[in-house]
Design brief:
Elements: H1 2-7, H2 10-15, H3 17-32, E1 34-35, H4 45-51, E2 62-63, E3 66-67, H5 73-90, E4 94-96, H6 102-113, E5 119-123, H7 139-143, E6 145-149, H8 160-170, E7 174-178, H9 188-198, E8 201-205, H10 210-214, E9 227-231, E10 242-246, H11 260-268, H12 278-292, H13 294-316, E11 320-321, E12 330-334, H14 342-351, E13 354-355, E14 357-359, E15 373-377, H15 379-384, H16 388-403, H17 408-424
Parallel strand pairs: 1-13, 5-6, 5-7, 7-8, 8-9
Antiparallel strand pairs: 2-3, 4-10, 9-10, 11-12, 12-15, 14-15
The structure holds pyridoxal-5'-phosphate.
């Protein structure tokens, strides 16, 4: 990692050794630990270079060709490249690359399509939805009338008949499909059919699975949804940021003063953001270029193989997995089957150098701060170069320490295994 990356940090070391050393420490932590947090990944050095560029100096409120400040000729070119690459990658009619993050992208969509008090049908947080899909702690839950749908108790899969019945009963303005913790595929076509039946917009948040969708390894929401949001930093493996993709025509308001694309754009700016982060937009463009490369499809195939391989080990080690397995990069392990709570499991794994997060499971009777599960994802270890064998070995180590948390010999062996894997697959 150090050779190339740290050469570029010499100035920072001279000017601000405190921050330089903290960055060094965090990079070491990333280098020496294994990242199984499903929302994280490692960007390429090319993405890092774009992020650390003088583009951060420029104010560029507005959009290419229509800026509120002078001097945006080059910035316009950069943002246009990012937009065109994203359109090509996802076969989208219109793209806005300016949202600072996933939450900002979702905020802008609500602003464009709904008014406070409107009804929104979205996946329940406990079933795998995201904070911005209607949590009472978030603006989405405070400003809108949220009707949550969940998963079936027997299969732990989204029940499309429940979604249809709720949509018919509550007539939502928006139906939201998307998740932070759901290990299976979503049926976007049926979501769209239901939205059309009740006169709602279909809004898909594909943040977790965007990389799998870009490579046709997960159902594609773009043909069906009115609007799709994503983060760029999870399976898509780009910089931290958000993006909105949408149809140009507003299906529910075809003759309105603004079409859907214009509504989305003005909800981002000036509706909810000021100047875009053009260094980050350039880094998004680099990420899209990387994702358009055939090697990215291979990478995503390995992401799926590795998560399936780990899931099979957990099952053979006696754990219960939510929905019994995985069809994406995510695995939800019910650690109570190993006699633990999610909080302890997260802590035990952290002690041996494996990062995961505790997670509520569907119908969880435990509390959010100590739920029944942990969530694991295969995107970051696959970026490091893990193959199936490595993933199987890692899953066995995870099962071993979680099944015998008091066994210090097993814990030491796990630490050594993590050290060997991180050495075998360095980052940067
Ligand atoms: C489905 C989904 N949407 C939105 C977000 C929010 O993204 P950000 O953290 O960039 O605001 C997340 C983050 O984890 C997510 O999982």
């Amino acid at each position: 990692m150090h050779a190339t990356y740290y050469k570029t940090m010499k100035n920072l070391h001279d000017i601000d050794p405190t921050i330089a050393n903290l960055i060094f420490k965090e990079t070491q932590r990333q280098r020496d630990g294994l990242e199984l947090i499903a929302s994280e990944n490692y960007v390429s050095e090319a993405v890092l270079q774009a992020l650390g560029s003088p583009l951060t100096n420029k104010y560029s409120e507005g959009y290419p060709g229509k800026r509120y400040y002078a001097g945006n000729q080059v910035i316009d070119e950069i943002e246009t490249v990012a937009i065109e690459r994203a359109k090509k990658l996802f076969h989208a009619e219109h793209v806005n690359v300016q949202p600072h993050a996933g939450a900002q992208a979702n905020f802008a969509v609500y602003l464009a399509l709904a008014k406070p008090g409107d009804t929104i049908l979205a996946m329940d947080l406990g079933a795998g939805g995201h904070l911005t899909h209607g949590s009472p702690a978030n603006f989405s839950g405070k400003w809108f009338h949220i009707i949550p749908y969940g998963v079936r108790r027997d299969t732990e899969l989204v029940d499309m008949e429940e979604v249809r019945a709720l949509a018919k009963k509550h007539k939502p303005k928006i139906i939201l499909a998307g998740f932070s913790a759901y290990p299976r595929k979503l049926d976007f076509k049926t979501f769209a059919d239901i939205a059309h039946e009740v006169g709602a917009y279909l809004f898909v948040d594909m943040a977790h699975v965007a990389g799998l969708i870009a490579t046709q390894l997960y159902p594609d929401p773009i043909p069906y949804a009115d609007v799709v949001t994503t983060t760029t930093h999870k399976t898509l493996r780009g910089p931290r940021g958000g993006m909105i993709l949408c149809k140009i025509t507003d299906r529910l308001d075809p003759d309105g003063k603004k079409n859907l694309a214009q509504k989305i754009d003005s909800a981002v700016f000036p509706g909810s953001q000021g100047g875009p982060l053009e260094h980050c937009i350039a880094a998004k463009a680099v990420c899209f270029e990387e994702a358009l490369h055939p090697a990215f499809k291979k990478y995503q195939e390995h992401v799926l193989e590795n998560s399936k391989a780990m899931a099979e080990v957990f099952i053979s080690e006696g754990a219960r997995l939510v929905s019994g397995g995985t069809e994406n990069h995510l695995i939800l392990v019910d650690v109570t089957t190993w006699g633990l709570g999610g909080k302890d499991a997260e802590h035990i794994l952290d002690e041996v150098g494996i990062s995961t997060n505790k997670n509520m499971l569907p119908f969880d009777e435990r509390k959010p701060m100590d739920p029944s599960g942990i969530r694991l994802g295969s995107a970051a270890i696959t970026t490091r170069g893990f193959n199936c064998e490595d993933s199987i070995a890692l899953a066995k180590t995870i099962a071993t320490v979680l099944k015998s948390p008091a066994d210090t010999i097993k814990k030491t062996a796990a630490q050594e295994h993590v050290a060997a894997l991180t050495k075998k697959y360095p980052i940067y």
